[in-house]
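Entry
Fold in token form

___
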Amino acid sequence: MAVYYTRFMTPLCEIILAGNEEGLSYLHLQTGEGKRVFEIAPSWVRNDDFFADVRTQIEEFATGKRTEFDVKLNPQGTDFQKRVWAELCRIPCGETRSYKEVAAALGNENASRAVGTANGKNPVPLIIPCHRVIAANGGLAGFAHGTKIKQKLLELEKCL
């Protein structure tokens, strides 16, 4: 099955999407910061029309007109990572949780580090809102795409 991709600018940064009929597998925030390296595979096919609805939803979010996404997702990861990502999707727009709170919601409050690792490997940030997870002391902690965009996203959501 072919993998499609698109790339476009938003008020936040350039965004690259990749996926297929099974769902969106990647969303990369091209911030120029952070530790996330993302490359478009030579076998992927550019198809802007395939992602038109997702792009519209992201643009609406970035301009304050949307608080939730309705996107078919297909992130690849371990069972634990998928459980963490599902829990992140339960954090409402405009709210945050600590890594420990997410771990406790999964049934093991001692799994904060594992939650942090799963957060860092989230292949669909923004839609799977890993930016809503912060340190217990209220600090931003890390973000694979850089803390500036994390701060920007949290500020945007406070206004929505």
Notes: The chain has a mean pLDDT of 94. The first strand starts at residue 4 and ends at 9.
